[in-house]
Each structure stands twice: as structure tokens, then as C-alpha cells.
Amino acid sequence: MSHSHGPTTPFALPAMPAAPPPxxxxxxxxxxxVDPAKTKHSAVHDGKNYFFCSARCLERFRREPEKYLAxxxxxxxxxx
Length: 80
Ligand SMILES: [Zn+2]
What we know:
By secondary structure, the chain is an alpha+beta fold. The chain has a domain at 25-69: CATH 2.30.170. The protein has two helices and four strands; from the N terminus they run E-E-E-E-H-H. A hairpin with a 6-residue loop joins strand 1 and strand 2 (33-34). Bound molecules: zinc ion.
């Protein structure tokens, strides 16, 4: 007997873990994981390399790097 109800998945896809694949870095502007080997949008700030998914994100970072760096590693919550 055949059941044509419900999708049949030939491959059981495992639930994606939250951790990004190795070798990727975070696009601080949009939060995406970017592969430095694949993107051509990068910026050097304060001696560190930053990578972005698009020219737009790169441009935004260049304008206000502090804004995006502030949210990089939590803890530094400055009172106004
Ligand atoms: Zn981006």
C-alpha cells in the first residue's frame, strides 16, 4: 500500500546547530556568517580584519565602526 500523504525526505536533514561552520566570521552589520575566503568585502579596523557579505554592509561599517564593534562582545554596556 502506498501512502501519498506527507513529504518523503530521502535524506534526514539534521537540525542545524547555532554554531557557524568553521572558517566563517560574523558580518557585524547584518549578523550573517561570512566566509573570508569567499567574500571580497573586507575592512581593516584597529589592526583587525572584518568581513562583510556585501558592499553595503562594508560601507555601513566604515561609516560607524564603533557602533557595530560595540555589539561584538557583550558585557560593555555603557550607561549614557
Ligand atoms: Zn551583511
